[in-house]
Amino acid sequence: MEALMQEIANHLATRLRGLRKAQGWSLDRAARATRVSKAMLGQIERGESSPTVSTLWKIASGFAVSFSSLFAPPGADAEEGPAAETRWGRDAAGMQARVLFPFDPLLGFEMFEIELAPGAVSESSPHARGVVEHIVVVEGTLGLTLEGDEARRLEPGEGLRFHADRHHVMRNLGEGPLRFHDVIHYLPGAASGDASV
């Protein structure tokens, strides 16, 4: 597992450097665009940090790329699905993400299976403008709080669609693992799935 995490960290380091180079951005400029500190971006680029899913979302939104493209190997084809198991191991917040369908630029969507450890809380800053999430609980009990709304409780088989361009918090309310499917839709042109950058 440790070797897999280092492999993912190395991939993210290469991917982040490639995104910065393609934009011609310094670390300072990237930090402003992503709202991730220059120090943290530097650690990710050196393969010294395993960022949380929330941090990766900030990076994806700042560079206007899809979340799944951060993990895609160069030349990956969305129509073929993931070439191999694409999983981001449990982060510091107790969240694990697995790519089920990588970003498809024609349809503007990607799909994940998300797992939250018992008691885990994952806070997400607003995603890019117009991003919509559809979640369906597979196992466990999900607590979802959306900025400006009352908290919601979702049981297995229940789902919710919401605009993710506002702060949102997901909690595992049960004593066992929480698993849910998360389909993410982007406005046309709001995200690039170009994994070759």
From TrEMBL:
Source domain of life: Bacteria
GO terms for cellular component: cytosol
Pfam family, one: Cupin_2
A molecular function GO annotation: DNA-binding transcription factor activity
Residue ranges of domain HTH cro/C1-type in the record: 16-70
Keywords attached to this entry: DNA-binding, Transcription, Transcription regulation
Family annotation (InterPro entries): Cro/C1-type_HTH, Cupin_2, Lambda_DNA-bd_dom_sf, RmlC-like_jellyroll, RmlC_Cupin_sf, TransReg_Diox_bact_type
PANTHER family the record matches: HTH-TYPE TRANSCRIPTIONAL REGULATOR, HTH-TYPE TRANSCRIPTIONAL REGULATOR SUTR
Protein name: DNA-binding protein
High-level lineage: Bacteria, Pseudomonadati, Pseudomonadota, Gammaproteobacteria, Oceanospirillales
